[in-house]
Design brief:
- It is a single chain.
- The chain is mainly α and 180 residues long.
- It has a domain at 78-179.
- The chain is 62% helix and 0% strand.
- It is built from 10 helices and no strands.
- It has helices at 7-19, 26-30, 33-39, 42-45, 51-65, 69-78, 83-95, 99-112, 116-133, 168-179.
- Helix 6 runs antiparallel to helix 7 (83-95), helix 7 (83-95) packs antiparallel against helix 8 and helix 7 crosses helix 9.
- It starts with 6 loop residues before the first helix and ends with a helix.
Length: 180
């Protein structure tokens, strides 16, 4: 990065670009780790009020750093307008022990998508995003208890996908807690 432009000025430029959309920041992320760190900084991502940026950064921090109120707030704010963030927020709530709230959020996904397979696709995309971001493998969410009831299906499915509406939350809580 050039030493001729003061860091606060670069941060302000990135924040303003981020207001137009997270995709506009792609070239800066691709430019290298220093630029990517600046793009994902609190000043750029969150102060720009960009919900996609909040979702991506919140998901990354949830996967790599473990649970915190700040991370849940970040992903929760984005959940209002982003269906992927809504799913991640619901699962993270359950993973953190807030089972009833998490299940309630996850149930709203079915109201927002045209069919169950679309909900499964959204869930799989979030799982893939977490896998692609990389996790330290500490399993920080395993210490929390939630969703210990076995669903009616008993997790047995004879057709694809290997999940049904009654075990949707449990299946993805297991997958995500195992990844993180």
């Amino acid at each position: 990065m050039s030493s001729y432009i003061p860091i606060p000025l670069v941060t302000e430029i990135l924040r303003r670009i981020g207001q137009y959309g997270f995709r506009e920041l792609g070239p800066f992320i691709a430019a290298g780790p220093v630029w990517a760190e600046m793009v994902f900084s609190y000043d750029v991502c969150l102060l720009a009020q960009n919900n996609t940026a909040k979702y991506v950064e919140g998901l990354r921090r949830a996967a790599q750093d473990g649970p915190s109120v700040e991370i849940l707030d970040m992903v929760g704010e984005a959940a209002v307008t982003n269906i992927h963030s809504r799913f991640a927020f619901g699962v993270l709530l359950v993973c953190c022990g807030s089972t009833n709230d998490g299940k309630r959020v996850l149930n709203t996904i079915f109201e927002k998508v045209p069919n169950f397979l679309e909900a499964v696709n959204i869930a799989e995309q979030v799982v893939a995003a977490i896998r692609d971001m990389g996790t330290p493998g500490r399993h920080t969410y395993r210490g929390f208890r939630g969703l210990i009831d076995i669903p009616e299906c008993r997790l047995i499915h004879h057709t694809a996908p290997d999940v049904c509406p009654s075990c949707f939350a449990l299946t993805y809580v297991f997958k995500i807690s195992d990844l993180c």
